[in-house]
Structure formats: C-alpha cells, structure tokens
C-alpha cells in the first residue's frame, strides 16, 4: 500500500500548530531589575482560552499515529514478525531522539547548577524544555498496546472505541464528581487511545464506508463539547490553565473526548479536498520536510525561545508594550517570525545528528529479532516512568539536576535499544523505516 499523503499532512499540521501554539502562549516580561518572568497568558487573559480550540490538534496526531501503526503492524504480522520485535522497533524510534535531547538538556542543567545559576530561573527553563514530554509516555504505552488493540479492532471494529469511550466517561465522572483523581489518570491512555484506535478504523474503511459517519461525528462531538462547557463543569480551554479545576487536559476530560470525536469527523470531511491539494507536487514539497523532521521539531521547538530571550529580553532590546495591549499583540507577529528563523537554524544544525540516529536505529534493527523480551518491557516501563517524571516536574525541579529520572531514562532507552540480537530474519518490509513513530 502506498503512503497516504493526507496522513503525513495531519502529522505535519499537528506539529506545526503545536509549535506555533506553544510560542504564541509563551510570554516573557523583563522586570526593572533585569529578571525575566513568564506570565501565563491563558490565565491572565481568559478570553485567549478560546484560541485553544484551534490549536489543540493532538487528536489528529494520535489519529495519524494509529493509522500508520495499523499498517506497519499488519505488514509485520503478515510477514511472521513478533509483537515484541515490532514494539522494540517503534519504541526505539522515539527513545533514541528523546534520550539524546534529554541528555543534552540535562548536561546544560548540570553545568548551570554547578556555576550557581539562579535556581528559580533554572527551574523555569527546565520546565519549558520539558513541557512537551507528556506526549511521549502516552504514545509509548499506546505503541506497546498496539498488537492487542489491533487484535480487538479486527474482531470488534468500531465497538472498541465505543467501549473505551464509555470507560473514559466513567473514569472522568469518578474523578470530577466523586473526587477520585487517580482514576482520572486512566484517561491519558483511554481518551488519546480512542483517537489512536479510530486511526485503525479509518485505515480499514470503517469510518468512510457511509457518507453520514463524518458529519455525524463532527456534529455530535461538537454539540457534546458545547454542552459540557456551557452547561457542564468543564472550561473551554483545551490546554492546561493553572488553578482551573476541573481541566480538560491533565488528565483528558469528557469534554476533550467530545473534541476528539468532533475533530476526527472534521478531518474525515476534509480528506477528499485535502488529498487533491496534496497531489500537487509544489504543495507536497512544502509539507513533506515538516513531517520528516517531526520529532526534531517537537523536541527542540522551545530552544529558540531561550535563544531569543537571551538575545533580546536579557539585553533589554525587546520592546515592552503593556501586556495584552494592541501593540503587544502586534509584536506577536515578529516574535513568531524570529522564532521560526531560529528554529530553522536549529533544525539545520541538528540534521547530521538526526541522520546519525536514523542510521543507528537501522543498524540495530536490520536483520534482528528479540533475544529475550523481558529487557524490552522492563526498559519501556522504566522509560515511561522517567518521561512522566520529566513531564510533570521538568528537567530542573527546584533548580537541581534530577538524577533518578535521568538515570531511569538512560537505563530504559538502553534496555529497549539493546534488547535485540542479530538474526538472519527481518519481519518488516524495508520501507517501514519511513513510517514515523509519532
């Protein structure tokens, strides 16, 4: 089966909006003493929470990921490959770049802590560099669960996301109404897992076999979201806002589930027109590089903020109109443009590293199979725990180097990457290397 350009576009589009969204809500203010603070835009200007309806695009990221994983696992399974071998290949595609990124950031944190950089500033920077990490443990878990989830899909089809949806609603009800917060954590896997599972259904035609499916999903999801926000207890913001309880993303709520359904429906409605557009080579030449650099963009997109902060805010060169004024919003345009230029430079500098990691990944996984599966599963558990810790506390909690999660991520990544041995057998087609894990 040839690659679906629309699926690749969804991944590229999601990455682009994540990057721009994070940049847009990042606010830097230079105080009278030269200190830099970062007010929370969504909390200080509550009307901006409506903007998150356009920037919360992660449902499509999981949808595209499920579509790609479904095809990759189906080919591996047909060729006689094992679930453990497939999971190891997919997991290492995420953990190699994430591990290198974390190592470099932690090295910088260690140096800054050694030279006595202000702990508060270091903690803020460490949080900014880890704010996107929530996605990685969730996606690793869904990748590990892909074989059984796909088996359930082959047997029950659309019944699987329906059951997952009922479980997500029950978990959210317990978390919100009965105040059992830990049950709500299940929705990280349940809600985003529904989008992932719908990717399976989309690939197999279960969402496109009837003309009414897409508009029904868009309409029902939209109405449910409006009701849960307008009448129910949930806020409109689809991004976390400090002090907002209940929220919609930490963990995903019933309102986020409704948004998943609505967004998938809108995606299906746009598919035909977008595929015609993407068939134009000029358009595809713009989209393709973004998808190819998706992990690099996702991991490194906050580094330009630090570079620009040092160059323009610490030096006092950046103008400082009143926060939220018309002049301040007008300056968001050059802010985004400058960050885009810096990020392009970062991607160019990192391209040799990106190619080197791809080569290492292929060298490890070419003609290889698992010797024993236990290092893989132990490594995955350790890596997920470490990434979850980074996502929650950043790379410098309290302005200090977090050694336990750092060692945990290193150990977990090594166990996953080195859990294979050379064997004259490859269960995956060569073109599977083109499939992005995310």
What this model shows, in words?
It holds the Pfam family Acyl_transf_3. It is built from 19 helices and four strands. It is mostly helical and 438 residues long. The protein has one domain. A two-stranded antiparallel ribbon has the order 1-2. Strands 3-4 form a two-stranded antiparallel ribbon. A hairpin with a 5-residue loop joins strand 1 and strand 2. It is globular and about 65 Å long. The protein starts with a helix and ends in a 16-residue tail after the last strand. The C terminus is likely disordered.
Helical content band: 55-70%
Structural class: mainly alpha
**Average pLDDT figure:** 88
What's the end-to-end separation, in Å? 19 Å
Low-confidence segments, given as residue ranges, are 422-438
Please state how the strands of the largest beta sheet are arranged side by side.
1-2
Tertiary shape: globular
Our estimate of the beta-strand percent is under 5%
Order of helices and strands: HEEHHHHHHHHHHHHHHHHEHHE
Query: How many β-strand runs?
Result: 4
How many helices does DSSP assign? 19
Please describe the biggest sheet, giving its number of strands, its sense, and whether it closes into a barrel. Answer: 2 strands, antiparallel
């Amino acid at each position: 089966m040839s690659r679906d350009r629309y699926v690749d576009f969804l991944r590229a589009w999601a990455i682009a909006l994540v990057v721009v969204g994070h940049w847009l809500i990042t606010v830097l203010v230079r105080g009278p003493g030269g200190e830099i603070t970062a007010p929370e835009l969504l909390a200080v200007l509550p009307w901006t929470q409506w903007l998150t309806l356009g920037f919360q695009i992660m449902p499509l990221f999981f949808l595209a990921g499920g579509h790609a994983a479904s095809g990759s696992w189906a080919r591996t399974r047909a060729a006689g490959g094992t679930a453990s071998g497939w999971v190891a290949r997919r997991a290492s595609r995420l953990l190699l770049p994430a591990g290198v990124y974390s190592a470099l950031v932690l090295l910088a944190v260690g140096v800054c802590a050694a030279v006595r950089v202000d702990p508060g500033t270091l903690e803020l920077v460490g949080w900014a560099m880890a704010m996107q990490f929530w996605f990685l443990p969730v996606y690793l878990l869904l990748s590990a669960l892909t074989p059984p989830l796909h088996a359930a899909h082959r047997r029950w089809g659309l019944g699987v996301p329906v059951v997952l949806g009922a479980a997500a609603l029950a978990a959210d009800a317990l978390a919100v109404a009965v105040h059992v917060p830990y049950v709500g954590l299940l929705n990280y896997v349940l809600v985003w897992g529904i989008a992932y599972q719908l990717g399976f259904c989309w690939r197999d035609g279960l969402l496109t076999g009837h003309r009414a499916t897409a508009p029904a999903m868009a309409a029902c999801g939209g109405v449910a979201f409006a009701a849960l926000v307008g009448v129910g207890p949930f806020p409109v913001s689809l991004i976390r806002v400090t002090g907002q309880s209940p929220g919609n993303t930490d963990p995903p709520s019933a309102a986020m589930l409704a948004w998943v359904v609505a967004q998938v429906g809108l995606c299906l409605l746009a598919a035909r027109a977008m595929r015609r557009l993407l068939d134009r080579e000029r358009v595809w030449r713009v989209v393709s590089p973004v998808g190819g650099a998706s992990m690099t963009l996702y991991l490194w997109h906050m580094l330009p903020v630090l570079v620009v902060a040092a160059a323009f805010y610490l030096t006092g060169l950046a103008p400082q109109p009143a926060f939220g004024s018309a002049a301040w919003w007008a300056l968001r345009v050059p802010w985004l443009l400058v960050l885009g230029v810096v990020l392009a430079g970062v991607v160019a500098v990192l391209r040799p590293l990106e190619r080197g990691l791809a080569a290492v990944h292929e060298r490890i996984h070419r003609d290889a199979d698992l010797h024993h599966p236990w290092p893989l599963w132990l490594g995955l558990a350790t890596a997920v725990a470490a990434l979850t810790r980074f996502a929650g506390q950043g790379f410098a909690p309290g302005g200090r180097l977090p050694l336990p999660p750092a060692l945990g991520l290193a150990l977990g990544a090594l166990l996953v990457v080195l859990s294979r041995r050379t064997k004259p057998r490859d269960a995956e087609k060569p073109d599977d290397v083109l499939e992005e894990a995310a």
